[in-house]
Amino acid sequence: MMPQPNPALAYRATRAALPVREQEADVFRRVNGALRAAQGEGAEAGLRAIRALADNRRLWLAVEGVLIDPTNALPAPLRASIVSVGRTVLREMEKDEPDLAFLIGVNENMAAGLAMNN
């Protein structure tokens, strides 16, 4: 009997073969997909927003953690600029009604910047 292919494993293997920056850009794109799905009215959109904002918060906290690491190879001014953007994003998410369009725009710019040099 032939083993059945596992699509999830194949997808992960394909993603792992991509350059690291493209993988990082993909994380921003996936979080953005959740933020877009959270736009709208109703209880379901509200629940999606809670999850999407939590994911976005974890993403930006991870980005900041990587950037404040003194062994990070990016130039210090670039790291500081991205940390500043991240803190703006985190402040926006603290609001009672965060501007999802703003958060999506910032994430799109990050994804585009990461994918630009691949």
Characteristics of this structure?
118 residues, mainly alpha, 5 helices, 76% helix, 0% strand, globular, FlaF
Task: Describe the protein.
There is one protein chain. It is built from five helices and no strands. It is mainly alpha-helical. The longest helix is centred in the middle third of the chain and has 25 residues, at 43-67. The chain is globular and about 45 Å long. The mean pLDDT is 87. InterPro entries: FlaF.
Summarize the structure.
With about 120 residues, the chain is mainly alpha-helical. The chain has helices at about 5-15, 20-40, 45-65, 75-95, 100-115.
Write the layout of secondary structure elements.
Blueprint: H1 7-16, H2 20-38, H3 43-67, H4 76-94, H5 100-116
Helix pairs in contact: 2-3, 2-5, 3-4
Number of helices: 5
Q: How is the main sheet built?
A: none
What's the overall geometry? globular
* Helix-strand sequence: HHHHH
- Please tell me the overall pLDDT: 87
Number of strands: 0
Domain count: 1
In percent, how helical is the residue content? over 70%
Radius of gyration over alpha carbons? 17 Å
Q: Gap between N and C termini, in Å? A: 41 Å
| Portion in strands | under 5%
Structural class: mainly alpha
Which parts are unreliable, with pLDDT below 50 for 5 consecutive residues or more? Answer: none
GO biological process, one term: bacterial-type flagellum organization
InterPro entries: FlaF
